Recover the amino acids of this structure.
């Protein structure tokens, strides 16, 4: 269960997943796994946090902030990398959050792995190479800027345990999660499969 090739290192806009019918087909093709791992999960297994995977001179966190924030303000002389401020419309709640970089304020906006690293570890990533895990941890297709409280509440939950509070965005979320799982050839347990399927069957 390892990808045949690493995804292109870029930061496309969210919402480019296939339609619901295609997502259901992709979901049906995913291997069923029990979500148990042989070795214990450690964050370090996925490499340096916010590694500059695409070699553009910006770390991944700032790449995603720059992509997802409206009216982003960048620090001078950083090549458009360091995000100092901006406005986030949270993709999971619709809440508007003002981001200001700083030791007491940066955590108001965090970067969510839609497919959490520890979840991925238990569903196939345990058997990947270090390079594949680092690429996955910094894959922009799997990353969303979100309000800190929302990210904390989601934690490492799978789809059967957590869905976006705003029901209107659950179709997009389910499609995006399935796209990541298919892209990286991860497996899925029955409960998470049923949760995603339950959302997708009601999507247009």
């Amino acid at each position: 269960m390892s990808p045949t090739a690493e995804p292109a290192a870029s930061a496309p806009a969210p919402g480019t997943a296939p339609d619901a019918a295609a997502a259901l087909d992709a979901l049906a093709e995913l291997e069923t796994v029990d979500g148990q791992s042989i070795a214990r999960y450690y964050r370090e297994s996925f490499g340096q946090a916010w590694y500059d995977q695409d070699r553009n001179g910006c770390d991944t966190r700032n790449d995603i902030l720059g992509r997802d924030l409206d009216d982003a303000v960048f620090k001078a002389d950083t090549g458009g990398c360091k995000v100092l401020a901006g406005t986030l419309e949270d993709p999971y709640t619709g809440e508007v959050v003002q981001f200001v970089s700083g030791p007491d304020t940066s955590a108001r906006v965090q970067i969510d792995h839609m497919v959490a690293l520890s979840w991925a570890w238990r569903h196939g990533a345990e058997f990947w190479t270090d390079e594949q895990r680092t690429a996955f941890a910094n894959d922009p297709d799997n990353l969303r800027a979100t309000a800190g409280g929302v990210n904390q509440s989601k934690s490492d939950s799978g789809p059967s345990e957590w869905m976006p509070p705003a029901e209107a965005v659950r179709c997009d979320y389910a499609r995006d999660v399935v796209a990541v799982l298919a892209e990286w050839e991860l497996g899925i347990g029955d409960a998470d499969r049923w949760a995603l399927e339950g959302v997708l069957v009601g999507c247009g």
Notes: The beta strands are 70-74, 83-89, 96-100, 109-113, 143-147. Residues 1-16 have pLDDT under 50 and may be disordered.
